[in-house]
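Hello,

Our lab assistant flagged a job as stuck in the queue for most of the afternoon. It eventually completed. Since we weren't sure the result was trustworthy after the delay, we are filing this so someone can double-check. Below is the sequence as submitted and the structure that was eventually returned. Let us know if re-running is recommended.
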Amino acid sequence: MDTITDNLQAVKARIGAAAQGCGRAADDIELLAVSKTFGVDAIRGAYAAGQRAFGENYVQEALDKITALQELQIIWHFIGPIQSNKTRQIAEHFDWVHGIDRLKIAERLASARPAAMAPLQICIQVNIGDESTKSGVEPAAALKLAQSIMQLPQLRLRGLMTIPPASHDTAVQRNQFAQLRRVRDDLTAHGIPLDTLSMGMSADMEAAVAEGATMVRIGTAIFGTRQTA
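-- returned structure --
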């Protein structure tokens, strides 16, 4: 677990340096630890080191972890595409969802969210690279989807997320993240208040921070090479 503690400190240092480099405050960028395929001991280790927000991609794996760690004050984020038959489980057990790209899924989450729980925090996934292998709404369709989600009960639209095409070129990375920022700015100009840009992972978090990320989703740099699910 000492390795996870050291890794968390190193990631926070990277975020801090990136923020300083573009005149931002490090506290304006939230670190989301993506713990998919890693066990409860790894999450406990990160939690002991001060991490509170964790992201999961696989519903059943996540539910097992949520049950095993229910005594901890963890904020659970679901990341990625959502199958219709999983909406109730997600609505009942998660605090955030990154990856809404269809109104049907948002409607199912809204209807399944228990009234006694706080609204489910939502980020729309935007497919910046127009990749057929990735989920996400086209940038031009984000406004209409956002306006519809705003009308749904038990959901709170917080912002946008993206998983851009992989690139080792910093200029390319920044251009991709800038596209998401411009979509955010367009929605804001149309009266939709958004405070979250969920973008940037282990290999490109600096570029994301430079282009306005408020939340970076980090897995490998914290937990190591991903294990087979």
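-- support follow-up --
The delay was a queue issue, not a problem with the job. The result is valid. Residues 108 and 225 are 34 Å apart (CA to CA). The beta strands are 30-34, 53-56, 75-79, 96-100, 120-125, 155-161, 196-198, 215-218.
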